[in-house]
Here is the input.
Amino acid sequence: LATVDTPGGIALKVDERRQTSMPGIYAAGDLANPLMPSVTTASWQGAMAGIFAQQSMLV
Ligand SMILES: Cc1cc2nc3c(=O)[nH]c(=O)nc-3n(C[C@H](O)[C@H](O)[C@H](O)COP(=O)(O)OP(=O)(O)OC[C@H]3O[C@@H](n4cnc5c(N)ncnc54)[C@H](O)[C@@H]3O)c2cc1C
Here is the structure.
């Protein structure tokens, strides 16, 4: 999976739908967000990743 360098470390590269460089693979939480590690952030990103993953299977 593609990564990006951030001031907080290496992170998985995701688009606005939280999809990684590999179609069908979504990421959330600290792996994709080293700058602001928090349970709240991991939770909303996980929810979004789940929603978009489901949408990708419907269209
Ligand atoms: C000491 C400490 C205190 C913190 N306090 C707070 C706080 O008060 N409030 C707050 O909001 N956030 C806090 N955080 C940050 C918060 O814990 C994280 O941002 C959050 O847990 C990230 O969730 P995640 O699901 O991305 O990752 P994680 O919670 O780290 O979950 C990743 C999971 O993947 C598992 N795993 C790793 N590698 C593999 C593998 N190869 N195969 C299978 N499983 C694997 C790990 O065992 C782990 O269970 C704290 C962090 C630390 C370290």
Q: What stands out?
A: Residues 3-58 form one domain. The chain has one domain: 3-58. The chain is about 35% helix and 15% strand.
